[in-house]
Amino acid sequence: MNPESIIEQAKRAFAITKKDIRIYYAKGPVVIFGLFMPLFLFLAFALGNRNLPMPFLLSGLLAMTVFFTATAVSPVIQPWEAQARTLERLIACPVTMKTLIAGDMFASFLFAVGIAIVPIMIGVLVGVVPLYPLLLAAGIILASFCFSALGLLLSTPATNVPSNIMMLSSLLKFPLIFISGVFIPVEQLPFAGQVLAICSPLTYFTDIARYCIMGTNSFPLSVNFAALAVFSIIFALLAIRLHARTVSRRI
Amino acid sequence: MSEADSYQEDAIHATDLRKTFSDIVAVDSISFTVRRGEIFGFLGPNGAGKTTTARMLTGVMQPDGGSAAIFGHDIVHAPVRAKQRCGVVPETANAYTDISAWQNLMLMGELYGVPKHYAEERAKTLLTALGLIERKDQKVQGFSKGMKQRLILAMALLHKPELLFLDEPTSGLDVQSTHLITGMLRELNRNGTTIFLTTHNMEEANRLCDRVAIIQKGRIVTIDSPERLKMAIERLHTIEVSFDPARSADDLITFPGIESARREGDKLVITTEDVDSAIHAITTFGREHNLKIEMLRTLSPTLDEAFLRLTGADSA
Ligand SMILES: Nc1ncnc2c1ncn2[C@@H]1O[C@H](COP(=O)(O)OP(=O)(O)O)[C@@H](O)[C@H]1O
Ligand SMILES: [Mg+2]
User: What are the ABC transporter domain coordinates in residue numbering (chain B) (predicted)?
Assistant: First the structure.
């Protein structure tokens, strides 16, 4: 067995994924930040704007749910591990930083994809069936990957206080909701808002969701997918880079 | 098998390892070699740099200077290969408390690429040997400190490492756990496992190690066998005595076997290499001068005294 081989490292990344799901996703934040928070935001918004069409609202809910779930736990895994004193043992294992990040990211990915089913089911129940389900699935998969990478990037500050990281990431996550076309279509934003919207990965997923569910879009589909892919790669590479630098400061 | 795996390679080869934390030099350019099959002790007081050294050798921290190789694999450039060959019991490590002892072991099996059926067999053997088999399916949360430490040792051993790192493995543990752990270390070593052990406990180093490096303020003061170390230690004993009526220290200093004497409150503190003659001399002196001996006791040397002795700092 060559411990450095990609297959061997991939197996070990999967072991880390299993561990994360068992331990960290069983804790509160996933359900609170991933499901309840979008649901409440959604209800508040829907009640305030009763004339908005259901497909518009549901595609926004889907975008928020995937975004919040993917970024709910991944930022705090390493601070949690450092605080619980399991991190040193973990990084003494024969796994690379890429493996470690991949493992954490995959756990976050699986949860985001899994929870995405909830708003889609709600939609089906109220009679909103996606027009392009396969395209939507592809969008959900790419977006979950992208937002999971963002979540890991958010955990790079070398603080071991999980609540600090949660606060920091909430500070970034909530404003993104308002500039990414979730509640207000990008076209209706003021110019500054539109500029910000272009910088937010969530914008592109919201647009994909909207197209797949109600057939309207602000950007060409190819642009949406390409933007998500580029963001994913940048976030993932940066996360690996920065974690490699900060991880030893946590222990 | 690559060249690095050839049997001549040392288990650990450290060259000028260095680590600083802002203005503190935690490890100050240390070099040493641990041969295959030996138990190598890293002995020093708190803050000496033992943990930092162990962390660099296990790939947890990057050295600021120098290099280290584990069985010929550079810890910075080939960390996965180096780590694959060692088991690690860090100083302040924890198992995952939300899952069971068994699940922790299986996780280690997966992280070290151990085939599942073999991992299960190993886990059973180790848990039995370490007295944890009945608790294997319980969450680690409820384990005592000693049980946790035994589990961490089992986790370190699951993949049958050729080299085992332990950072103060018995510090603060109950007698039973300490006994189990040291017993297991001896047995492992008999079967060929190389062991790198840090401790601030001189006795432990003496009992377990083939060679001991004494580390102080980030530097290696000496590397020696425990026998030689022991000789150096036993050379210097302290005797405390108090007489009634009290006497001055100068009265005793000329006696055979007594190296130094000084007054500390109402007692005299005497250092000697020959406890037997010194005590005889003291009692004879007391009888001759009609003094009542109110208290007399011998003290084993402290680590600090041993250091001074070994480094020759007190003869300067
Ligand atoms: N992460 C760290 N940050 C800052 N200083 C540290 C850190 N780790 C260790 N030190 C300092 O380095 C020195 C050596 O520490 P350590 O290696 O833990 O010693 P030992 O294990 O022998 O007790 C100490 O002065 C300690 O305060
Ligand atoms: Mg220490």
Answer: 12-242
